[in-house]
Write a structure and sequence with these properties.
2 copies of one chain form a homodimer.
Chain A (H helix, E strand, L loop, with lengths): L2 H6 L1 H5 L11 E7 L5 E7 L1 H10 L3 E4 L4 E4 L8 E8 L6 E7 L14 E2 L12 H4 L2
Parallel strand pairs in A: 1-6
Antiparallel strand pairs in A: 1-2, 3-4, 5-6
């Protein structure tokens, strides 16, 4: 099958055709399946989404390292993906996950652990110095 | 106060210094304050964030129209903002909101009303034909 045909039939064979746009990336929000807490926002490219769907473990594309990033590969704080949702414009993803440990490299359960006023509102669940060398 | 000084003191006077990057935009996730449901993902620039904080009503920057967008200004489906959170890298926002009606122009409560497999999982709460002319 040619690449063009594969693209055309993606909706039928693979569900919703995600619009990765010019950058090749879409924002992907991770939400705790049990508590509903929004854990983090990162970016996914087509490869990261495919790996997520294939493995059931959350994958993103690291913009700073420009590479595929399996969440928790270093820290052990993996995300088991229960469901991947796509928004109405098909240009944003929602990973509904079971989070092991904390999502944030700061040791917090959620990366959204501060208000924009600077108040700490999130729970700290691990010591980052003990996890990241 | 000069613009430069204002920028330097922003962290002290206005809380966390949000990193709007080269594009001037950050993704902003809206979450239902009561149910925890992730309602939508849009983008905010500095003006939209300031207007949100000033008014307590969710504002975004429409990329398609390239203008400030008060959510619900047309549909009446406004978002009253209880809290604005910022993530660890200060380049993504979380609006915790009381949503009137539905967030999605399709009539669904949430824009994330489909799985990436194409299954409908979201609740439809209004008829878009009756809301948008």
């Amino acid at each position: 099958m040619s690449a063009a045909n594969e693209e055309e039939t993606r909706t039928d064979t693979d569900g919703v055709a995600v619009d990765f746009g010019d950058s090749g990336l879409v924002p992907a929000v991770a939400q705790d399946a049990e508590t509903g807490e929004v854990l983090m926002l990162a970016y996914a490219d087509r490869e990261a989404l495919e790996r997520t769907r294939e493995t059931g473990r959350a994958h993103y594309h690291s913009r700073s390292r420009d590479e595929l990033w399996e969440k928790g590969a270093t820290s052990g704080h993996t995300q088991s993906v229960e469901e991947v949702r796509v928004d109405c414009d098909a240009d944003a993803l929602l990973y509904v996950v079971d989070q092991t440990g904390g999502a944030c490299h700061t040791g917090h359960r959620s990366c959204f652990h501060r208000t924009v006023d600077g108040d700490e509102v999130g729970e700290r669940v691990f010591d980052p110095d003990a996890v990241y060398e």
